[in-house]
Amino acid sequence: MSFDPYAPYGPVVESTVRVVTWNVWGRYGASHETRQAGLEDILAKAAPDVICLIEAWRRGASDQAERIADRLGLPYHLFAGDWQQEDWLSGIGLVSRWRMSEPQRRSLHAEDGTGHGQVLHVTISGDRGPIQLFAVMLDYPLDASATRQDQVRQLVSFINQVAYRRDLVIVCGDFNAGPDSDEIRMLTGRAATAGPGMVFYDSWEMAGDGSAGYTWSNRNPLAAVGLYPDRRFDYILSAWPRRGGVGHPVSCQLLGNRPAAQEQISDHYGLVADLRY
């Protein structure tokens, strides 16, 4: 097949899938039910097709993904996690418009076995083809870049093992690293990639509003107590290249970036992106 330099992807698709990622800070704090209600309101307005919830919760027979799915009228949801926090578990929650496969969960560590990252994978049976979704949380300390780089290598190896290269591959979550860090540069092609051909679009870089897009911001009182610098920690990444431009971000916005005087949803702001699909 000849290569057309004026249409390298073939006809570019105009339809999109809307994806949200948000570190939702579990059930911490006395106002967690108020935060939950605010979260549901914002997500209902955003009307996503797929939602990734980092630090989601399960308490007894109820979990956060199920509550959000019920509120938004989305039929599929799941929770995976076992980090005990008082009377609830912390983990990753997924909500989807379309059926999801059984989840595969992997721990992500440094080479010496330290570190506490994780990735959760499902295949979503979307109406325009399979979506390979990877929900990620990497280690948080500011001095843990070396650990996160090892975790990115393990993440990419896992993606290579389970995801079909022609499918839309979405990697989203809380990476606890800014876009100029070595671990993120490995994913976006600014440094040697963690696997052959494995490079990703960064939705905010491609289709944000031109600002820094901090998802960890000292404007947020729940984040400010950590005395961290402002950083963009949270990402919606999509694998490049795909026929038809599938995965190409066409819009990306922050969610929940309220004035400091208002009730905050989480210590992180969320992200919503529209990707060609």
Architecture overview:
- The model has no long low-confidence stretch (mean pLDDT 97).
- The chain is α+β, with helices and mostly antiparallel strands and 277 residues long.
- It has helices at residues 32-46, 64-72, 145-162, 182-188, 203-207, 221-224, and strands at residues 16-23, 50-59, 62-63, 76-85, 88-96, 104-108, 117-126, 129-137, 168-174, 199-202, 234-240, 249-255, 270-276.
- It has one domain (16-276): 4-Layer Sandwich (Deoxyribonuclease I, Chain A).
- The strands form two sheets. Strands 1, 2, 3, 4, 5, 12 and 13 form a seven-stranded mixed sheet that branches. Strands 6-7-8-9-11-10 form a six-stranded mixed sheet.
- 21% of the residues lie in helices and 34% in strands.
- It is built from six helices and 13 strands.
- Helix 1 (32-46) crosses helix 2 and helix 3 (145-162) packs parallel to helix 4 (182-188).
